[in-house]
Fold each of these.
Amino acid sequence: MRINVIAIGTRMPGWVNEGVTEYVRRLPRHIDLQFTELPAAPRSAGATTAKIMHKEAAALLRAARGADRIIALDERGTGCTSVQLSGHLQDWLNRYPQVALLIGGADGLDPRCLEAAHEVWSLSALTLPHPLVRVVLAEQLYRAWTLVQGHPYHRD
C-alpha cells in the first residue's frame, strides 16, 4: 500500500528530512510512505489569504488524485490515539491501496480540501510547526505499524 503525505512547503531543514527518512526506512517494503512537497502559493500584492489557500488546495487535490482515502490534517479535526491510528492503518492495509494525507500551508487547508477528505484529523490540540508535523506523522505511522505487528516499540 502507498501512503502519500502531501504537504505545502519545500526546503525543509535537515533534521526534518533525517527524522522522516529514519521512520520511512523502518517501515516494511509493503508500506510505501512517501512525502510529496508542494510549493506554497506566492504571497504577492493582491494575494489574499483566501486566494492563496485556494491555489494551494488545487495543488493538494491534484496531487491526491487517485487516492482511495483522503485524510486532511487540521487543528479542528478529530484527534486519535496511537492505538486508534493503528486501527486505521490496519483498515487501510485491508481496504485502501492508496491513502493521501494532506497538510496545508501557513494558513491551513482551504475548505475544499476538508470537503474532499473522507476524514479530518488533528494530530494535537497544540499548534505544531509544519516541519515538525512531518516528523511526528512519520513516527506515528511507524508506531501504528508496530502496534499492528505486536512489536514492543509502543509501550502502554
Note: The radius of gyration is 15 Å.
Amino acid sequence: MLAVVPGIAEFLPVSSSGHLVILGALLSELGQAASKLGGSPTLEITLHAGTLGSILVVYWKKIIQLLTSDRRVVPVLAVGTLPVVVVGLTIKTGFPTLLLNPLLAAVMLLVTGGMLVALGRLRPREGCYQDLTWHAALLIGCFQSVAILPGISRSGSTILGGRLLGLKKEDSVTFSFLLAIPAILGASVLEAKEIWDQINAGNKLEFSFTELGFGAGLSFLVGVFALKWLIGWSSKDRLHWFAWWCFPAGILAIYHFYGSP
C-alpha cells in the first residue's frame, strides 16, 4: 500500500505526503507493527527514489535537452528550487511534527481541492517554460514550497503556479516535474544522511534490502503510469476533476480522526 500510494499521489494532484500521513495514522490504529510502516525514513527514501526514477524515464528527452540545447533552463530550475530548500529545512528542523499531523493533512487536502477548482477555471495560456524568467521561476518555486505541508499537492500547486504565470498546459506540467527532480533528490539526500547516521550508530534498518527493492520497483512502475495519466488529463483540461477526490478524502479524514465518537 505504501509503495502504491506515493507512486500514484506523487504525480496526480492529490498530495502523496498527505495520503501517507493519513494512511500512516490509520495503520497505527492497527497496531505497533503496522505503525512502523507509516513512519520509516528508510522506506520513505526508497519510495521517493522509485518515483524519481519515474520522472527520469518519462522525461528523459526533456532532461537531455536541458543538458544540451536548453541549458539556460538549468539555472532557472535552480532558482525555482530555492524556496523549497529554505522552507523545507526550516520546517524539518524547527517544526517536524507538522509533517506528521493527520489533521493538518486532512485540512490541506481541502485546500488542494480548492486550488484544483481554481486551475480548472483558468483561461488558456501560451507561454513556454524555456522562456521563463528567473522571477517567474522563483514564484513557481514558492508554490512548490507550500507543498511541504502534508495535504498540499506539489504537482497541483506548481502546475497552478505555472499557469498563473502564463505557461500553457503542457509546459506547466513539464516544468512542474523538471522542478521536482532537484526537490525530490534533495529530500532523498537528507533522508539518506539520517539513515547513514543510524547505520553508523549501530541501529538495524527496519526492512530488508529485498523489501526495499520491491517497494522502490512498485513505486516506480505505478509512478510511470500515474505521470502519463496526469499528462494526458492535463492536455484534456481535466486536472480539476481530482478536486472531487480531495474534498471527500479530506472531510472523511477530519471526521475519522477528530469528529467520530
Note: The radius of gyration is 18 Å.
Amino acid sequence: MNALPSALAATDTACKISLYDSEVATVIAASEMYNPLSIAEDREYMGAILQCGQGYYYTAAPGVAGQDQITVRVSVPAGSHIVAFWHTHGAAALDRQYFSEVDTALALSWNKPFYLADYTGALKVFAPGDKLMSLRKASRLGLPARNGFSRGRLVHDHKGRLIRVATSIKQRFFANNKHREDDLPHNIEFAHM
C-alpha cells in the first residue's frame, strides 16, 4: 500500500444490517470473498470492520491492479463505529507476506488492529503495540530497508486452529471450508510468528 485511506467520514444514515457476531468472523468473511480476487487480479482490497450494536459488518474497496496502491473512503453510519481494518496484498511477492510500513502506520494512527490475508492463505493481524522490524531485519529478509514492516501475528480460532482463507475462486466456492458460519470463532487468540 502506498497511500493511507483518504478519508473516513461519519454519515447520518441508519446503521446497516449486521451480518456477523464477531470482529474476526467478519474479517474471515471479507477475506474469503476478496483474497481470491486479489490474487487473481494482483490487486489489493481493503476495508473497515464496523460494529453496530452486537453485530459486525465490513466495507470493501479495490486498489489499482498490478500496483501496491489503494485509496479507501469509508462512510460510518450513525450507530456504527470502526473496530478494525482488513486488507489483501494481491499476487505472490516476497514483501506481500508482511505488513508494510503504511499498513502499520494506519494501525498505529487509528489505534485499531489491521488484518492481512495474503497469497498463501494466511490470516494475520497487526495491532498497536505489536513489534516492528528493524531496518536490519527487513534487509535480511529481502525487504526494502525502511522502518515499519511487521510479520504480524497469525490468527487462531477459539480451539487453537490456525485460520486459513481461500486463495482461489475455486477454493472459495467448492472447497469444504472448515470455518462454516456455525463454527466461526468467538474467542480469538493470536500467536506470534
Note: Confidence is low (pLDDT under 50) at residues 1-14, 176-193.
Amino acid sequence: MIASMTGFARREASGPWGTLVCELRSVNHRFLEAGLRLPDELRAGEPELRARMARQLRRGKVDCTFTFRRPQGSAAALEVDHEALRRLLAASHEVSRALATPATVNALDALRWPGVLREESVSGEQLLAQASAVFDATLTDLAAMRAREGARLRELLEQRCTALEELVAAVRGRLPQVQSRVRTRLQERVAELAANVDQERLEQELALLLQRLDVDEELERLGGHIAEIRRVMGAGEPAGRRLDFLMQELNREANTLSSKSQDLEMTRSAVDMKVVIEQMREQVQNIE
C-alpha cells in the first residue's frame, strides 16, 4: 500500500491539569524532516516524540505544534526560586564591583528575570504522559489520512498505466504499416532514379534502415517498466523513490521512441506518452 506525504491531523485532550492541543501537518520532502514547536513544559519529551514519528513515517516535512492551556480560573501558587535569585544577586554585585558603581536590584526587576518566579504546576511526568497519548493519537490520524490520499494516488497511477499500455499497443499495431511504407518508399526512390540495383543489396539497405527505425526494444522496456510500477505499488512498502526512478526510465524510452519515429501517428503516440508520464511524475512526487 502506498501513502501520500501530504496530510493534516489535530487532536485535543482536556483534564484537571488543563488542555493539550496537538497539530501535525506534512508536505512533500525527500527525507523525513520533523519540526516540533513545544511549550516549555513539554521540552523534555521532544526526543521521544521525534523517535515515535520516525518509527511511523518514512518521508515528508512534518510540522508538529503543541499548545498547553492551564485550567481557566486556576489559582496556582507562585514560588520564588531562591537559588536562581541568589545567582542573579551575585551576578549583579559582581558587575557593580567591576564598574565601581553601586547598584541596587529592584524587586520587580528580579521577579521578571527568567526562572526567578515560577508557577506551581501539574507534575511534569503526568503532563508528558498526557502529551504522549495525544501525540500518538494525532500521529495515527495523520498516517491514516496519508494512507487514504495514497490510495487515491494509486488509483490515478493505475489509470495512467492503463493509458500507457494502450499507447504502447497502438504503436506496436502501427509498426507493420510503417515498415511497409518504408519499403515502398525506398523502392519508389530506386525506380525514380531508373537505375539497375542489385536486389540483394537493396534488401540489405532496407534491413539496415528498418533496424535504425526499429522500436521493439523501447516498447518492450516500456511494458516492463509499467509492470514494475504495478508491482512496486502493491508491495506494501514505501515506494516513492523507486517510482520516481521508474518515471525517469519511462520518459527516456518515450523520448527514444519519438526520435526514431518516421510516422506521424507514432510521433503523436510518443508525445501522448510523455504527457501521461509527466502527469504520473507529478503524482509520484507526493508518494512516501
Note: The helical segments are 46-56, 82-99, 107-112, 124-193, 199-213, 216-233, 240-260, 264-284.
